[in-house]
């Protein structure tokens, strides 16, 4: 009996141990499940965080895209405002076009509409030139404006404009100079500026006559104009003087125009003015001796940006300016090597437009005339395989 009791107690103890073991096992399983659940929750939280980050990145990208689109829209609006401004000043209506018509050497340009009149019309209008000039000098304000406009139209004739017939009229330069001083009459100022910029696209003698008449200081003051239309005509004028010869280029440099042109590149976003300013700077560096400028690295950084511009006109003028900058001065090549210009220019060697690819090839032709290090830098930019392919083409300009 006593033995049975012990056995019962023993069985009871064993059963309790088993129950405790099961309880422990159950507790461990519950803890394991809790741990797994917690890990799953953490994983889900991490995935949610990742999703949230992705969404935020997408939102950020969309915002950046929207900002870029807004910037483009803003630029378009500025272009449209500029067109409206020009239209209102000129008075020709919405069909006005400010194109670039280059002469054979690409260095002197007529500004504005290239009027394609018949020889008969030009001959008849040429006879009226003395009457137009007389009204410019002696007429009322409206007559002065219309007469100056007629002179400007004749100076914009596409072929053989009657520049000489206009310049031989007594007092023409004095009258145009007087109009440049009429800040309260910007329409007349603009017509006078336009006349002068197209006269400066003529012969060396024509340019000298404008300078000798004392017009240069008055022209250059319009570089600081708040009106893009007036500023642009001023840049045309500077570019045409500088592109004529080294002697006349130096007359322009006496007025410290390079810092002002660089400031225009920095502050103005209008495609036409940027393109025109790059062209004017290219003419300034076209002749020996090239001017030394303290802003050379600022200019290099600006050119680096403009090489990737969506406007092919700006990219083209930037390439031409870099070609002219590297023509004579190895110091300029050295400054270029401190930027990403070589790499960006190498990307333009294959450009479909010859107006961009040809000056780019010539640029590298200048660079490899420099030091061994400069030549190696050009090679490192990856030009050799591209040049080899271009050499195999039949295009004589590129070869």
Automatic annotation (TrEMBL):
Name the InterPro entries for this protein.
Answer: ARM-like, ARM-type_fold, Armadillo
Compositional bias, Basic and acidic residues, is annotated for: 1-79
**Any one Pfam family match given in the protein's UniProt record, by short name:** HEAT_EZ
Gene3D superfamilies hit by this protein: Leucine-rich Repeat Variant (1.25.10.10)
TM segment ranges: none
Listed SMART domains? ARM
UniProt keyword list: Protein transport, Transport
Annotated region (Disordered), positions in chain: 1-85
Family, as annotated: Belongs to the importin alpha family.
Q: What's the protein name?
A: Importin alpha
* Protein species of origin: Anaeramoeba flamelloides
């Amino acid at each position: 009996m006593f033995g049975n009791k012990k056995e019962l107690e023993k069985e009871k103890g064993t059963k309790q141990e088993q129950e405790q073991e099961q309880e422990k096992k159950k507790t461990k399983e519950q803890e394991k499940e809790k741990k797994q659940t917690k890990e799953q929750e953490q994983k889900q939280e991490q995935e949610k965080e990742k999703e949230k980050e992705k969404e935020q990145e997408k939102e950020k990208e969309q915002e950046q895209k929207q900002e870029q689109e807004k910037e483009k829209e803003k630029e378009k609006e500025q272009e449209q405002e500029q067109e409206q401004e020009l239209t209102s000043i000129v008075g020709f209506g919405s069909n006005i076009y400010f194109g670039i018509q280059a002469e054979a050497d690409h260095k002197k340009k007529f500004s504005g509409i290239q009027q394609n009149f018949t020889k008969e019309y030009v001959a008849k209008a040429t006879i009226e030139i003395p009457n137009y000039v007389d009204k410019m000098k002696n007429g009322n304000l409206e007559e002065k404006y219309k007469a100056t406009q007629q002179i400007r139209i004749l100076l914009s004739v596409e072929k053989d404009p009657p520049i000489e017939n206009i310049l031989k009229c007594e007092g023409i330069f004095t009258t145009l100079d007087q109009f440049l001083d009429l800040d309260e009459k910007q329409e007349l100022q603009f017509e006078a500026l336009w006349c002068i910029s197209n006269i400066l696209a003529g012969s060396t003698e024509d340019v000298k006559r404008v300078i000798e008449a004392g017009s240069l200081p008055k022209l250059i003051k319009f570089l600081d104009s708040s009106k893009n239309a007036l500023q642009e005509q001023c840049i045309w004028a500077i570019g045409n003087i500088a592109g004529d010869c080294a002697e006349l280029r130096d007359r322009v440099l006496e007025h410290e125009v390079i810092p002002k042109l660089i400031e225009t590149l920095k502050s103005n976003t209008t495609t036409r003015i940027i393109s025109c300013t790059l062209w004017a700077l290219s003419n300034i560096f076209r002749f020996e001796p090239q001017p030394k400028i303290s802003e050379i690295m600022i200019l290099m950084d600006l050119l680096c940006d403009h090489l990737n511009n969506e406007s092919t006109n700006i990219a083209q003028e930037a390439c031409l300016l870099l070609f002219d900058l590297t023509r004579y001065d190895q110091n300029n090549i050295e400054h270029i090597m401190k930027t990403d210009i070589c790499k960006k220019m190498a990307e333009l060697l294959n450009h479909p437009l010859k107006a961009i690819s040809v000056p780019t090839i010539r640029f590298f032709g200048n660079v490899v005339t420099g030091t061994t290090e400069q030549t190696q830098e050009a090679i490192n930019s990856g030009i050799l395989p591209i040049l080899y392919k271009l050499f195999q083409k039949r295009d004589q300009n590129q070869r």
